[in-house]
Amino acid sequence: NNLVPMWVLNEHAPGAIKDDASIAYHPRLTRLGLRFKGYALSENWTLDGGVEIDFQVFDAGSESRQVPRMRLGYMRLNYKDLHIMAGQHWDIISTLYPNVNLNGVNWNAGNTGDRRPQVRLTYSPAVGNGKILLTGGLTEAGAVNMSDVDKNGVPDGIDSSVPLLQGWFGTDQKLGENGAIKAGVWGHYWEETDLFIPPDVPAVVDTTIADLRSWSDGLVLKVTATKWLMLQGEVWTGENLGDIRGGIGQTINLDAEEVGATGGWAEADFTLGKKLVLIAGYTMDDVKDEDIMDGMRAKNQAPYGALRWKPFKNLMITGEYVRFETTYLGYDETSVNNHVVAHMMYFF
């Protein structure tokens, strides 16, 4: 997808088109939101909430008739260090995001986590020069990829009657006058037992009953070392990760077995004076070869860089380059996409 790139089509398959170029102009990154904080319900309880929309809808409208999409829609009750949130929000897992490719944030290329309906509980007491965060939640499985393996018209996440469990434990701490560190561990788990697959469904072979599971473990680290240097990244591993943007979008193979993958990303942001920020990073999603068949995506990686210029306080002009490199099992040559983006944003 030239607007939301995640991986490269196989350039070396029979009949494939090589070196196909495209160009697109779009305002889809435009966002509008409303947030309120600290509304007092009583002496000890407060209420937060928010709604945010953008125009990233591809299955309706046109480039001159773009349709709004809900990104966030939530309410949160707060009692001292306890927070109860319900609605549409970002995943609890995989809390960091690269500062490039703002449409696709390098999903299925090493970065995981998306938005979905959920109920979560967070405990965030003050510790040291910051706080610790312990979060657990019941979230909707299949909200991202809408997987329907048995083709019964009901997404597997809903059909399973089991929520996707997510958890996070970490800390945010100040380091000196200008530094900070964020570190933590996260994971998720979901399963659908005794999933019936009719014999006439061509998605899988040699099976009529399948137990599908999805799980992941991950580590997060973000360090603001000085005013001019910030380092961040994640590493993770798991199986059946398409719904959290891992495994290069692959969930199960033709034998109804979960596809395993390991990946992550690392980035350095250099602030040059008050107006320039230089970004450099690398991201990778590596699928287990023994879990896939010839022609399936085996590895997806992308070195990237960007330059941000702020001529005025709230105005940012950015140029980005991401080189997506996707390898397919059974093919020696890598398929490559050079993705160049320029955008201008005003924040208020």
Please describe the structure with a list of short key phrases separated by commas or semicolons.
16-stranded antiparallel sheet; 348 residues; single chain; mainly beta
Q: Could you explain how this protein is built, in words?
A:
It contains one helix and 16 strands. It is an all-beta fold. It has a 16-stranded antiparallel beta sheet that branches. The longest helix has 4 residues, at 156-159. The two termini are 30 Å apart. 29% of the residues are buried. The model has no long low-confidence stretch (mean pLDDT 92).
Determine the N-to-C terminus distance: 30 Å
- What is the tally of helical segments? 1
Overall 3D geometry? Answer: globular
Number of strands: 16
Strand content range? over 45%
The computed structural class is: mainly beta
User: Mean of the pLDDT scores?
Assistant: 92
What does the secondary structure layout of this molecule look like, with pairings?
Layout: E1 32-40, E2 45-54, E3 69-79, E4 82-90, E5 115-123, E6 126-127, E7 130-139, H1 156-159, E8 164-175, E9 179-196, E10 209-224, E11 229-239, E12 260-272, E13 276-287, E14 297-312, E15 315-328, E16 335-346
Antiparallel strand pairs: 1-2, 2-3, 3-4, 4-5, 5-7, 6-7, 7-8, 8-9, 9-10, 10-11, 11-12, 12-13, 13-14, 14-15, 15-16
In short:
This protein has 348 residues and is mostly beta strands.
